[in-house]
Specification:
The structure holds 2 protein chains of 2 kinds. Chain A is of the alpha/beta class. Chain A is about 40% helix and about 15% strand. In chain A, the strands form 3 sheets. In chain A, strands 1-7-6-10-8-9 form a 6-stranded mixed sheet. In chain A, strands 4-3-2-5 form a 4-stranded parallel sheet, sandwiched between helices. The chains are: A alpha/beta, B mainly alpha.
């Protein structure tokens, strides 16, 4: 584990709250934590719900669902069924441009646990479960933190595979329950218990930052908490500023801060466009972006979303469409492969985008992208197709000039620098041996979502990344290729 | 006759027949699945699936056939693996050879994907082509070792054999044609690279093909009709 990359650096605009002490300490162990933060008050069920309502605490994982409403539902379900609820911390941050939860779990684990313990004590919880991404520093930091503090109930850490959909709340709970870490096929509210909850208990799940914010609000009280931020959205928010060629920077800023100031903190210029909200977020025009107010309302005005607070600025030196196509292909591969929109819509859109990016596409491909994503919206068990559609469609809007150049056929002539962060590709690939391939076309039948045949009946690309749900089809294609021209290649793991 | 005894008698009578039928179907489907003229890719996948299913069925029937013959004392275990051991008749030993080949060929089919990843894909073709030796031997065994067959049975197998032979001939000739074109082109481009004078006699070409490329400056056309 290389500590340099795993512990993201931190800055703050305005007062440090979640980031208190992180300018001096790599990680706040219990001793440092108690020195820096005043003792945690004990809250009753009523005062906790009241506090969450008065500061309008919302889920910081991207959806922005009011915490108080979620908590009330869980408490009501617990009373009704006579069971004790389970408190879950979602720290399985699957989004490559976001590092804030990873940072919190690694560097300020006790603040997150404070929030979870407050709720667990107030609601009489049965246990606390902390879901972390396998291989992330939280895997070590959280058990260490649990071991050195007092807890109102048992707590355990659950490691989840590092995938984009692992961070979806339903998928996380399924993972905690020992099921495949995929979004639940039939929607069930975690707060209601039943199949949607951990061990069928009413489950109160929130993002790691939400729990840390709750701990901060409990210490400060609602008035002091609202001293910064906007009237409708008090308090601070954690943002991840992605810098090309450097590790991401986590910035704590009050709601309503200008996006331009945050970009300055990271030493970035808006370039050709700014992405706010990660790979399920929207792109902003560089002119709008600088003066945009970082709040849910401020970004909604510009057609954007705050999401999980991940920010990427696209420098002018890179080809926007190429960057988008790269991420779209990755997002298509990261889906669980459960529902139609993800199984068909996203790969179709990614394929057409790739054709556009290389200059091989025309107006028909552009229409294909819009149609595929338009059709994908609103369907599916989770928000993956909707989020991906927002990401791509807003990009087509903001980079309209570049898209025009690509549709015309010549392209923009800029290289694809890979500014949008993606994890190292560790999955298997399907490779074509062109000296053997004779264009039989069986692979196109055996693995339709994977191998696309070009106009002459040969596979359209030489290497195709294979998502876990596509492996069966890929193996069939390898085994049944009449020319023995396909093979699976797995990159060697470290 | 009691139940188990009747089952035994049935298997004694038919397991071998079913093996031969399944093997015939596997060979015919395997060959048919390579066809590109009539079958669409989708149908070829289906025929390949039938090929695999019948091959597995053949293996299963073979196991039953051998087990029954051993159980009834018609064959000793050693001679079902090694041909020409003990005092087995030639007709029975043919069956042993065919059985060994069938197991080998089915095994190569099962690990086909491994060969696709290696440089020795041709090795797989050679080994899997053992089926074309296995099947006639199995036919000979089936028609000579047991009871005398009806005339229509002979005609049926004869027809299958003729069709397979024809298809194989077409496949072999087309492969040979491609191979010869490739080597000829390779030789010509090598000669051109070395700056060697062109041979005085122009290479023979089919009447319908395009005239030879004029000068040494014209680009080579890989996969062209020459």
């Amino acid at each position: 584990m290389s500590a340099r990359i795993d512990l993201p650096p931190v800055r703050h605009l305005g007062p440090p709250r979640l980031t208190t002490g992180l300018d001096r300490f790599q990680r706040l162990d219990l001793a440092a934590h108690t020195r820096l933060h005043p003792p945690l008050p004990r809250l009753t069920q009523g005062t906790l719900l009241d506090l969450a309502e008065r500061v309008d605490l919302r889920g910081r994982g991207g959806a922005g669902f009011p915490f108080a409403r979620k908590a009330r539902a869980a408490v009501a379900a617990a009373d009704r069924t006579g069971t004790r609820p389970v408190v879950v911390v979602n720290g399985a941050e699957g989004e490559p441009p976001s590092a804030k939860d990873r940072m919190l779990l690694a560097r300020a684990p006790h603040l997150v646990l404070d929030g979870a313990c407050l709720a667990a004590a107030a609601f009489g919880a049965e246990e606390i479960v902390i879901g972390v991404a396998a291989g992330s520093p939280g895997e070590v930091s959280i058990p260490a933190a649990i071991a050195e503090r007092d807890l109102p109930c048992p707590a355990r850490t659950v490691c989840l595979p590092e995938r984009f959909v692992s961070g979806e709340s339903g998928a996380l709970i399924r993972g905690v329950n020992g099921l495949p870490v995929l979004p639940a096929a039939v929607k069930a509210r975690a707060a209601e218990g039943g199949t949607g909850g951990v061990r069928r208990r009413p489950t109160l799940l929130s993002n790691a930052e939400t729990w840390a914010q709750l701990a901060v609000a409990a210490r400060l009280g609602p008035e002091a908490y609202a001293a910064v931020g906007t009237d409708s959205e008090p308090g601070t928010v954690l943002l991840t500023v992605n810098r090309p060629g450097a590790e991401p920077l986590v910035v704590e800023a009050p709601f309503g801060t200008r996006l331009g100031d945050v970009l300055d903190t990271g030493g970035l210029r808006p370039g050709d466009g700014v992405l706010v909200g990660g790979y399920h977020g929207g792109w902003l025009d560089p002119v709008d972006a600088v003066s945009a107010s970082l709040s849910r309302a401020g970004l909604a005005e510009l057609g954007g979303t705050l999401g999980a607070g991940a920010i990427v600025a696209l420098p002018a030196a890179t080809c926007p469409l190429g960057e988008i196509a790269r991420v779209a292909a990755w997002l298509a591969g990261q889906s669980a492969g459960q529902c139609g929109p993800c199984k068909r819509g996203l790969p179709d859109a990614a394929e057409s985008l790739a054709a556009l990016a290389t200059g091989a596409g025309g107006p028909a491909e552009l229409e294909d992208v819009q149609r595929a994503l338009g059709g994908a919206q609103g369907g599916g068990a989770c928000s993956h197709p909707d989020g991906t559609a927002r990401f791509v469609l807003s990009a087509l809007d903001v980079f309209a000039g570049d898209v025009e150049a690509h549709v015309a056929g010549t392209g923009c002539g800029r290289p694809v620098l890979g500014v949008l962060p993606l994890p190292r590709d560790e999955g298997p690939h399907l490779e074509v041996d062109w000296s053997r391939c004779a264009g039989h076309g069986l692979c196109g039948v055996l693995a339709p979502g994977l191998v696309r045949l070009g106009p002459h009946g040969y596979p359209a690309s030489t290497t195709v990344p294979v998502a876990p749900w596509q492996e069966h089809g890929a193996h069939r294609a390898v085994n049944q290729c009449p020319a023995l021209a396909l093979r699976m290649r797995r990159p060697e793991r470290k | 006759m009691s139940g188990p005894a009747r089952v035994m008698a049935f298997l004694d009578y038919f397991a071998g027949v079913f093996t031969l039928l399944a093997l015939t179907a596997a060979v015919v489907c395997g060959l048919a699945a390579t066809d590109r003229l009539v079958l669409t890719p989708r149908l070829r996948v289906a025929v390949q699936s039938v090929h695999r299913a019948t091959a597995v069925a053949a293996l299963g029937f073979l196991a039953v056939h051998i087990a029954v013959k051993i159980a009834e004392g018609h064959a000793d275990p050693q001679s079902t693996v090694l041909p020409f051991t003990g005092d087995t008749a030639l007709a029975v030993s043919l069956g042993t050879i065919a059985a060994d080949l069938l197991v080998l060929v089915t095994a190569t089919g099962a690990i086909r994907g491994r060969f696709a990843g290696s440089r020795h894909a041709w090795l797989w073709r050679v080994m899997h082509a053992g089926a074309y030796a296995c099947w006639p031997i199995a036919l000979a065994h089936g028609l000579t070792a047991g009871r005398a067959a009806h005339a229509w049975v002979l005609w049926g197998y004869g027809l299958c054999a003729a069709l397979v032979a024809l298809a194989l001939l077409v496949r072999g000739l087309s492969w040979l044609g491609r191979h010869r074109t490739a080597t000829r082109q390779l030789r010509r481009s090598k000669a051109r690279d070395a700056g060697a004078p062109r041979p005085a006699t122009a290479p023979r070409r089919p009447r319908h093909a395009a005239p030879p490329v004029p000068g040494p400056l014209a680009p080579a056309q890989p996969g062209g009709g020459l």
